[in-house]
């Protein structure tokens, strides 16, 4: 492509398509003006306000972003081959745009008519005569690439994935900066199958690093919002990611596709019922994440429910009504058999006892109505007996009691946990009250499980869980509670599982999610990592995930891998400075990934050397960052945004144009065991888009030694 697109000679075809782009932009402006001209006429001030804000939201959604092409493809349906759209043509873009007559100028990529853009092949042309892709540079339509089907097929470039498409290849190989972008113009057929699966279908995607799992999950949400807007809006959709930094990295994707109402959270945020103020050992954390804890908690929560020791009496006016203990016990038995939630059960027990009283009143010739039943259910003696046989329960109190009292724990554990395991849970020095307890992250997940025993958690319509390979059974159950009536898209890579509590297989994970019926799909084409780099990292696969096939790379451009062994720490620092300076001389972002414990040292080294950088583990002022990128700030400010110092524990899911991995052995050693260490290494080695530099003074793990 010429360096200055504006200076290149422009073909008549490009001019014609630019005209359509201009007309589409004008039509979009008209749609927006029409929306803004609407007058809100609600019945009262509140409804007028509601309508007004709906108008503003719609107008905002119709805003044209000059940097985002309004369309990226065109479909010409064949006059004879297409039964649905014979002889028609459509421009495919991020949103629907129509002219003053309501005729489409651009169709939404998610509309059924757009399907052929992603799926048509020489074998299955789907009624197309021609598929056209548009290339853009600096917001200007600069290139056209045609793929004829049918008669003109011989002239067509090779088939997918990137085939002969320069536009596709350029998109995949563009240097990366800033947050993740949508891939709507280049979704591949096997990705599209997942994106467009029906709302009722739960899917699990296993995929090597950079195969587009995250991208696919986000585009699936956007598709579902289009195809089932009302249901998703009513139920809600949620994207679950591993940490805030990752969520920040992906947060622009859905808004760029016009979808701003999708919640994004970490599992920790979902279950944040108490602050996390402590950390336990790996063995205890692993146990607390084990699915057996669900049964233990259930028994502990219900441990307080018992049959009454004696009968009870309700006084109404001058009459006494006695309900024998066995009858109350029967009510309790029935309710427990129906598996009611704990707090609903309390209310129901009160009503059942009141009903027993009512039956006796009726037998004695009285004719009490529902109000009398309610009054009896609320009466003091009934409340007292309910409090005694079905006491109020608080999650924190149950867990506090469980960790404090070995006898209670033994009773709740039954055969589920052996004595050593029980000892792992019991506090050495118990806090005096539940309020004073310092909970760990794993405890908070257990509090959420207990809260669900108390009251049912509301279900969403769809949940996407990214990096799901790291979640414990109990964390997966926490996600499951939030999609009992909805579906899930589970994304991950077993080879990248780095937590001691990870479930280990997708079948197990899906079981804990309550979606055993989900289909497991595999993505194998890597869009991020250059071939040499992925092949180097894949040397770890026989150890870390022997059953997984080595990933491939669709990137054709060279891409680089440098492995640099040095003698000592001083040389390491020197080479780090050199490598960073060289990387910054190129385009795109630069990530320096180190063991978490080494981060401060590297930061200090950068400061001493006058290298401006950002730390990923520190909050960044987003406005400042955007300003630096937009304006021609001082070079050092721009470098500070481009150069990111990344602790290995936060690298998952992210990518940088150039990556420098510092001292791999230290990164591996920081994990709980050798397997998890090598998996962490696999994650950090697969973050690079164009170049990976590995710097080490210590010997490399044997599989990586050159
Ligand atoms: N069809 C595509 N066209 C262009 N780029 C793509 C396509 N699919 C994925 N990519 C790009 O490849 C990179 C990796 O995608 P993504 O982060 O979704 O992969 P992942 O499988 O989630 O990786 P990881 O396992 O490392 O988390 C991103 O830059 C994404 O935009």
Automatic annotation (TrEMBL):
Name of the protein this chain belongs to: AAA family ATPase
| Domain UvrD-like helicase ATP-binding residue range list | 186-530
**Provenance organism:** Actinospica durhamensis
List, alphabetically, the Gene3D superfamilies matched.
P-loop containing nucleotide triphosphate hydrolases
An annotated GO BP: recombinational repair
Which parts of the sequence bind ATP?
207-214
Q: Which InterPro entries match?
A: DNA_helicase_UvrD/REP, P-loop_NTPase, UvrD-like_ATP-bd
The answer on whether this UniProt entry bears the keyword Nucleotide-binding reads yes
Q: Which PROSITE patterns match?
A: UVRD_HELICASE_ATP_BIND
Is-annotated flag, keyword Nucleus?
Answer: no
> Single GO molecular-function term?
3'-5' DNA helicase activity
What keywords does the record list, in alphabetical order? Answer: ATP-binding, Helicase, Hydrolase, Nucleotide-binding
GO CC terms in record: cytosol
């Amino acid at each position: 492509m010429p360096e200055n697109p504006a200076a290149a000679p422009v073909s008549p075809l490009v001019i014609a398509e630019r005209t359509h782009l201009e007309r589409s932009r004008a039509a979009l402006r008209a749609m927006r003006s029409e929306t803004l001209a609407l007058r809100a006429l609600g019945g009262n001030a509140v409804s007028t306000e509601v309508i007004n804000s709906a108008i503003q939201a719609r107008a905002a959604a119709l805003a044209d972003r000059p940097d985002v092409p309004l369309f990226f493809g065109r479909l010409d349906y064949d006059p004879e081959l297409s039964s649905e759209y014979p002889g028609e043509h459509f421009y495919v873009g991020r949103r629907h745009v129509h002219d003053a007559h309501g005729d489409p100028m651009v169709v939404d990529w998610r509309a059924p008519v757009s399907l052929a853009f992603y799926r048509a092949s020489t074998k299955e042309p789907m009624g197309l005569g021609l598929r056209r892709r548009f290339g853009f540079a600096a917001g200007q339509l600069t290139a056209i690439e045609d793929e004829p089907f049918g008669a003109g097929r011989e002239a067509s470039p090779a088939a997918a994935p990137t085939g002969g498409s320069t536009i596709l290849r350029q998109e995949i190989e563009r240097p990366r900066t800033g947050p993740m972008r949508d891939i709507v113009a280049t979704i591949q057929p096997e990705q599209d199958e997942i994106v467009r699966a029906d709302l009722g279908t739960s899917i699990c995607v296993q995929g090597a690093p950079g195969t587009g799992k995250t991208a696919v999950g986000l585009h699936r949400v956007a598709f579902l919002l289009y195809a089932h807007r009302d249901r998703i809006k009513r139920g809600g959709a949620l994207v679950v990611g591993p940490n805030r930094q990752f969520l920040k990295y992906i947060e622009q994707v859905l808004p760029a596709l016009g979808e701003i109402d999708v919640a994004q959270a970490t599992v920790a945020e979902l279950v944040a019922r108490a602050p996390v103020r402590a950390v336990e050992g790996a063995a205890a954390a692993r146990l607390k994440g084990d699915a057996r804890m669900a049964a233990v908690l259930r028994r502990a929560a219900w441990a307080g429910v018992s049959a009454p020791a004696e009968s009870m009496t309700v006084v109404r006016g001058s009459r006494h009504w006695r309900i024998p203990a066995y009858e109350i016990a029967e009510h309790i038995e029935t309710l427990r058999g129906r598996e009611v939630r704990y707090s609903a059960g309390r209310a129901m027990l009160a009503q059942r006892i009141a009903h027993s009283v009512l039956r006796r009143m009726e037998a004695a010739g009285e004719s009490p109505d529902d109000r009398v039943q309610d009054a009896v259910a609320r009466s003091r003696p009934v409340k007292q007996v309910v409090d005694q046989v079905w006491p109020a329960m608080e999650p924190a109190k149950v867990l506090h009691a469980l960790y404090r009292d070995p006898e209670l724990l033994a009773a709740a554990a039954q055969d589920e946990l052996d004595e050593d395991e029980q000892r792992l849970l019991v506090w050495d020095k118990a806090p005096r009250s539940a309020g004073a307890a310092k909970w760990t992250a794993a405890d908070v997940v257990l509090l959420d499980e207990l809260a669900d025993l108390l009251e049912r958690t509301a279900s969403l319509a769809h949940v996407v869980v990214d990096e799901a390979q790291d979640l414990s059974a109990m964390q997966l159950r926490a996600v499951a509670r939030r999609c009992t009536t909805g579906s899930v898209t589970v994304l991950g890579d077993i080879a990248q599982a780095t937590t001691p509590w990870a479930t280990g297989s997708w079948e197990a994970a899906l079981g804990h999610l309550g979606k055993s019926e989900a289909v497991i799909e595999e993505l194998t084409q890597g869009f991020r990592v250059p071939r040499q780099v992925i092949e180097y990292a894949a040397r770890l696969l026989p150890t870390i995930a022997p059953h997984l096939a080595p990933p491939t790379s669709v990137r054709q451009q060279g891409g680089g891998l440098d492995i640099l062994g040095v003698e000592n720490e001083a040389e390491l620092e020197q080479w780090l400075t050199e490598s960073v300076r060289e990387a910054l001389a190129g385009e795109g972002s630069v990530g320096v990934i180190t063991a978490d414990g080494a981060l401060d040292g590297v930061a200090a080294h950068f400061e001493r050397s006058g290298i401006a950088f950002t730390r990923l583990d520190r909050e960044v002022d987003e406005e400042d960052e955007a300003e630096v990128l937009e304006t021609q700030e001082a070079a050092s400010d721009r470098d500070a945004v481009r150069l990111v110092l990344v602790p290995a524990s936060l690298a998952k899911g992210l990518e940088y144009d150039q990556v420098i991995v510092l001292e791999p052995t230290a990164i591996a050693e920081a994990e709980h065991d050798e397997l998890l260490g090598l998996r962490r290494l696999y994650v950090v080695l697969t973050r690079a888009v164009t170049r990976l530099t590995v710097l080490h003074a210590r010997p490399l793990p044997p599989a990586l030694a050159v």
